[in-house]
Write a structure and sequence with these properties.
The chain is 79% helix and 0% strand. It is mostly helical. The termini are close together.
Length: 122
Amino acid sequence: MTTLTLLMFAATIALDVVGQMCFKLGLNALEAFDDGSAALFWRGVATSPPIWAGVLAYTLELGLWIAVLSSMRLSVVFPLASLGYCGVLFASRYVLGEPITWRRWSGVAMITAGVALVSVGM
């Protein structure tokens, strides 16, 4: 794995986390204006800058993911992509202020341990 591939892979993880945060922030803003109308909800989704930022992040991630897959084995890189779950958990806590239970922190520790096992001997 080259340094460039590693950087592109790290960027896919970061863009995944950013995309999820943008989606959640955009939806949180819409909840403040929720009157129960599906049409107004979807209009709000379609015109929400944070949601569009999330779509952009996912679009960039797709391009980088294709580049990463072209130079790495799927059986290695896909399990490593689960680090995105860890990133979302940390961002949920420190960006959104969500409470995280010890069970979730334990789950992140297990995911990280699994990623370490998969990455040994890449």
